[in-house]
Amino acid sequence: MFAKIKEFINPSKNPDLTQAHELQRKHLPTLWLLGKTGAGKSSFIQALTGLSSIEVGNGFEPCTMTACVYDFPQDKAVMRFLDTRGLGEADYDATEDIAVIGESGNAVIVVMKADEPEQSAVLAALKQVKKEKQIKHLLLIHTAALLCDESERERQIIFNEQQVKNVWNTDFSAVSVDFESQDGAIYNEDLLISELTKILPLLGLILEKKDHSTVESNNFDKVKKEVLWYASSAAASDLIPAVGLVSVPAIQATMLRALAKQYNVEWNKRTFSELIGTLGSSFALQYSAKLGARELVKLIPIYGQTVGAVGAAVVSFGTSYGLGRVACYYFYHKSKGEVVSNETMQTLYKNSFKKGKAAASYE
Ligand SMILES: Nc1nc2c(ncn2[C@@H]2O[C@H](COP(=O)(O)OP(=O)(O)OP(=O)(O)O)[C@@H](O)[C@H]2O)c(=O)[nH]1
Ligand SMILES: [Mg+2]
Predict the structure, then answer these.
(1) Helix (H) or strand (E) holding 124
(2) Ligand nearest 143 Cα, by number?
(3) 35 alpha carbon to ligand 2 midpoint, in Å?
(4) Is residue 341 classed as helix, strand or coil in its secondary structure?
(5) What span, in angstroms and rounded, lies between the C-alpha atoms of 134 and 107?
(6) How far is the CA of 113 from the centre of ligand 1 (A)?
């Protein structure tokens, strides 16, 4: 069984992953921010991502007359924001932005200042979005909630929510926030993140609070976005089963090599065998079964293009994230000359696999 894994994750090959990374960029899940000028869209992106106002202001990847695209994380992006600009007059036409967002538009985030009842431009755009039926989810964010008079806030929020309901007649959640609360934190941050995670689970994994319990987990935090990027490339390449079959193990091999380097661990067949060895036979079995399933998927094109491909992508994200997580743990200890316990490795793999799989499961 190990031999079979080694056949796929070949530690000595240096494959060309251009196609996989291109597919990944094309399929980045996207949150579309819609709100009138001054509503707090850019503030939202800044508050969540930590991108500075200059970066957000300039938009390093402007894409239409009316919207800017921000990839996040910037260098190894796994998702993006589409930030509509200057929605003031009622003559905004959403057609071009709808086209840009394409099929990867996961949700529209409607941003309204809590005390601003005049929302005709946003509502008109939203009507257009609804008509196109491309975007299923909506989250309403009431900003500057702490600026409202407390006795008025509830009424104002309900009023705006009703305005959105009149246009978007399917279920949606709403959350009141303030990006400029006095203590510097986002008011209602936890609720905001939990609502965003429901729409885009991956965001939950990116934004999860750092677990500072050990030096090892602190170190993992620094390379986590790289692991997520490889996992997301693996998942994207699996959307085309014939590509995924070759790419996924190659991406994982490349990821392991890159991670070893970060931890100053020499990467060779022996290190690889040791690492895989700690994961035991249940990992080997799961991995081989998955490869088997993917080979099958490839032979049944219709299955492969529908349920099979999406399912395979989710599992590929999970195995890649799981492998990346345990590899970091293993490399960290190896670089200190310490031996890891197989049991710890296996538990960590199982948990991280689950976490990764959940993060990649969205509609
Ligand atoms: N007090 C408070 N001010 C906010 C909040 N959100 C945004 N602002 C302020 O409102 C102003 C406009 O915010 P932006 O984030 O630039 O608004 P925008 O939606 O990006 O506006 P456009 O780019 O013009 O479409 C800024 O001065 C922000 O500091 C909030 O939650 N509370
Ligand atoms: Mg803005």
Answers:
(1) helix 120-132
(2) 1
(3) 9
(4) coil
(5) 9
(6) 8
Task: Please provide the size of the chain in residues.
Answer: 363
Enumerate residues lining ligand 1, CB below 6 A.
Answer: 35, 37-43, 85-87, 143-144, 147, 178-180
* Test site for ligand 1: of 32, 42, 188, most ligand atoms within 8 A of the Cβ: 42
Q: Are the beta carbons of 88 and 122 closer than 8 angstroms?
A: no
CA pair distance 266, 259, nearest whole angstrom: 10
Q: pTM (2 decimals)?
A: 0.88
Distance of alpha carbon 344 from alpha carbon 47, whole angstroms: 35
Q: Hey, where are the domains in the chain?
A: 2-22+211-360, 30-199
pLDDT band at 306 (very low <50, low <70, confident <90, very high): very low
Tokens representing 40 are 């707090």
pLDDT in tens, 102-142: 777 779 999 999 999 999 999 999 999 999 888 889 999 99
Ligand 2 mean position, distance from CA 84 (Å) = 7
Q: Which atom of ligand 1 is nearest to the CA of 143?
A: 31
Task: Report pLDDT digits (tens) over 144-177.
Answer: 999 988 889 999 999 999 999 999 999 999 999 9
- Ligand 1 atom closest to the Cα of residue 177 is 31
Look at residue 109 and give its three-state secondary structure.
strand
The token pair that represents 213 in the structure block:
């319990």
Confidence at residue 295, expressed as pLDDT on a 0 to 100 scale: 56
User: For a pLDDT cut of 90, what percent of the chain falls above it?
Assistant: 49
Q: Is the dihedral of CA 328, 293, 240, 98 positive or negative?
A: negative
Rounded Cα distance, 169 and 194, in Å: 22
Contact 282, 1 (CB under 8 A): no
What pLDDT does 307 receive?
A: 47
Helix (H) or strand (E) holding 141: strand 137-143
Q: Which CATH class is domain 30-199?
A: alpha beta
Q: How confident is the model at residue 213 (pLDDT cuts 50, 70, 90)?
A: confident
